[in-house]
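Let us work through a complete example step by step.
Step 1: write down the sequence.
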Amino acid sequence: MSAFLTGDTVTLHPAAEDDVEFFARAWNDHRLRTPLLLAEPTTQEEMRESLLEDEGARFVVRVDDGRVGACSLFRVDERHGRGMVSYWIRPSYQGEGYASDALDAVCEYAFRERRLHKLRAGLVASNDASAGVLESVGFQEEARLEDEFFYDGEYADERRYRLLENEYR
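Step 2: predict the structure and record it as tokens.
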């Protein structure tokens, strides 16, 4: 399958039926499940429903044809010109810049092709690596919500980020 979006080091492909097992395994991996705030186990059937029926644009991030993660544009509100982004990279591929590259490609798509004005993202306040991904693309912290999540055995704050089209690049 050809790439829908291309970054400097990654290609992004629309999630498809043959990606269900990859997503289910990733979402059940404790190293990803905890920072993604996924408390319940995910079966392949549940993942299939979520992946293929979910609104938005969910992409598989690939490096040299191997799946390394995902990046999504979702909760798009055309009327108000805004949407949310999310991303994750398998632990064995983290720290290589793939998340930043994939997120940058999705932002380019959102602003240039979808004509959105604002992108939003949220994360557990202690997730400095994810904050670094957002900031590397130009996102700015907009708010901090106290005790928003039950995370790793205790309540944790959420950091909310935003990127406006005129601030991008």
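Step 3: interpret the result. The mean pLDDT is 93.
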